[in-house]
Amino acid sequence: MLYEAIVEQLLQEMKEGKLRPGEKLPSIREAAEAFGCSRNTVIRAYGELEKRHRIYAVPQSGYYIVHRSPAGEDARGALEMPDVIDFQWAGPDRSAMPYRDFQHCMNEAIERYREDMFTYSEGQGLASLRLQLARHLRDLQVFTVPDRIYVVTGSQQALHLLVGLPFPNGKRNIVVEQPVHPGMVESLRGYGGKVHGISYEEGGMDLGRLEALFRDGDIKFFYTVSRFHNPTGYSHTNEARKRMVELANRYDVYIVEDDYMGDLDGDPRNDPMFAYDPSGKVIYVKSFSKVMLPGLRLGLAVLPDTLRESFLRAKAAADVHSPLLTQGALEVYLESGMFAAHIGRMREIYRRKAVVLQEAYRKHLPPGTAYTRSFSGFYTTIGLPAPLRAQAAADHLLQRGVLVDPAQRMYLPEFRQEDVLRLSVSQVEEGLIEPGIRAIGDGIRELLRQRTRVRFVNRE
């Protein structure tokens, strides 16, 4: 039996009520025997159902049916509730994506570069695109020349390459904010030098601690998300940015500044660290995935000349060059002014969502629950009240129709926290944000009541 047939059969049984919310599915072995197929076929079918949020996995236990909210059952509003309100996925708002505009840009790029598609492109990126990127970066207070811009296949590629490269300061160790996004954690896994963490909290970070690391830690570079941090949503103040650059220059440490969502910052008074760095100590990295189409897989890095040759060699070994067609389409999109208009719309959408989210937190989360006060419209975190744990809470909330992201994997081992959830509202419809947060608040209260009952029974 093909995996698609298994998926359809199980979906039909859920629809008919033969499989009910919270019910455990047969094990992989049992299902393979029942369907007369291989275990790999069942694994693929269960994986597909999990991607559709129709089932969920519990480690060392098995697969269970997700809670579904029947259409029209929510009396608190006319909005029809989906099967799952997804606060986990953090791509850009699908409803605001410029599909048609970008299709025109792709067609123009095919015409413009049709001959070039039969050859390998420049490893550093199309010269004409780098010219447009240099003009675009001026609006972000990043003043550089096209020759210092390197087009990369997503900003994560730049970060991964920089982790592995020797730096001109001859140092070996790395400092990263804690928590930090999972991609950076994976890039650091198995790194030969020492990786230091420094806590990034609502009031900023301990710059005295950072200075001590820079002074005594043999630090190659410090990785920071200066605006709209992932996962907390925090942004450094201009004063903190200036101080970090001063410390980097004093102790010969490079800063890798990840400004992946700088385009969404509508406050012209906020400057990137790059704006305070005349020496070349700040390496500026930026992505287009969170504000446009993640499928583009395009980003950029602004590098000092001293890293040019080693970076180009490492990139050539990774992928030869970034895709020519998407480079050309992005060039047309920037050149035409479409990108500027698109960003204006996105800022307004995310600003509204962030306001709704913060108000919903205030109204619906129970006492003892902490949350970050971020207005990026992308990431925030919830700190669960003791003794709740993030993974158990996420499993419980999924049964209530809400998908959230446990943040354990966003910490280095010595900083690991088990009580933090990451949420993103980037793809959640504005009208579903408050119902989703209400469900989270109710779920937290229910878990706390369960713990109270357990303690009471144990005392008896």
From TrEMBL:
Cofactor(s), by name: pyridoxal 5'-phosphate
Superkingdom field: Bacteria
Keyword line: Aminotransferase, DNA-binding, Pyridoxal phosphate, Transcription, Transcription regulation, Transferase
InterPro entries, A to Z: Aminotransferase_I/II_large, HTH_trans_reg/aminotransferase, PyrdxlP-dep_Trfase, PyrdxlP-dep_Trfase_major, Tscrpt_reg_HTH_GntR, WH-like_DNA-bd_sf, WH_DNA-bd_sf
Domain HTH gntR-type: from-to ranges: 1-68
GO MF terms, alphabetically ordered: DNA binding; DNA-binding transcription factor activity; pyridoxal phosphate binding; transaminase activity
TM annotation in the entry: none
Alphabetized PROSITE patterns for the sequence: HTH_GNTR (PS50949)
Protein family according to the UniProt entry: In the C-terminal section; belongs to the class-I pyridoxal-phosphate-dependent aminotransferase family.
Protein name (Swiss-Prot/TrEMBL): DNA-binding transcriptional MocR family regulator
Organism placement in taxonomy: Bacteria, Bacillati, Bacillota, Bacilli, Bacillales
